[in-house]
Q: What sequence folds into this?
């Protein structure tokens, strides 16, 4: 597990970029954090780290946004309105899991019982207006990804 404090959206993006550089096909990131915590901002950084454009937007109404790269595709899901295994199945979620894709999933709490065991959990908590406490769990790759504002 790794904890870091970021003090601006730019710092959040910079930290997430480090995470994005460490991702590999088949990875699933389950976000935890309330409305406005910075999940989409974090995804922008992941996209940059994966070599994708940072033109990431919230998938709230689309359910999933797709960002294709040369080697990996990033699928950005919003599970806010998904409340059970049956409704998850109708999204086609399981069809997106592959060796040439990375999935990031907002509101993963809603589908926690349906996610595979080997997921990466990123918890983002708003400490102050622009200050975020970010916790990354689930894989040793990320234990040393940060170097600033660590406690």
A:
């Amino acid at each position: 597990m790794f904890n870091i404090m970021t003090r601006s959206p730019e710092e959040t993006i910079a930290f997430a970029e480090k995470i994005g550089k460490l991702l590999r096909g088949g990875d699933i990131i389950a976000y935890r954090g309330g409305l406005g915590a910075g999940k989409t901002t974090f995804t922008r950084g992941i996209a940059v780290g994966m070599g994708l454009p940072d033109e990431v937007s919230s998938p709230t109404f689309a359910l999933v946004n797709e960002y294709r790269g040369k080697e990996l595709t990033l699928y950005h899901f919003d599970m806010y309105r998904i409340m059970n295994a049956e409704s998850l199945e109708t999204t086609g979620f399981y069809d997106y899991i592959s060796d040439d894709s990375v999935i990031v999933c907002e509101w993963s709490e809603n589908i926690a019982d349906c996610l595979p065991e080997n997921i990466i959990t990123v918890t983002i908590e708003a400490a102050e207006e622009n200050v975020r406490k970010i916790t990354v769990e689930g894989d040793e790759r990320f234990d040393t990804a940060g170097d600033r504002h660590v406690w």
Observations:
- The chain has a mean pLDDT of 85.
- The radius of gyration is 14 Å.
- The beta strands are 2-6, 28-32, 64-68, 73-78, 101-106, 120-126, 132-137.
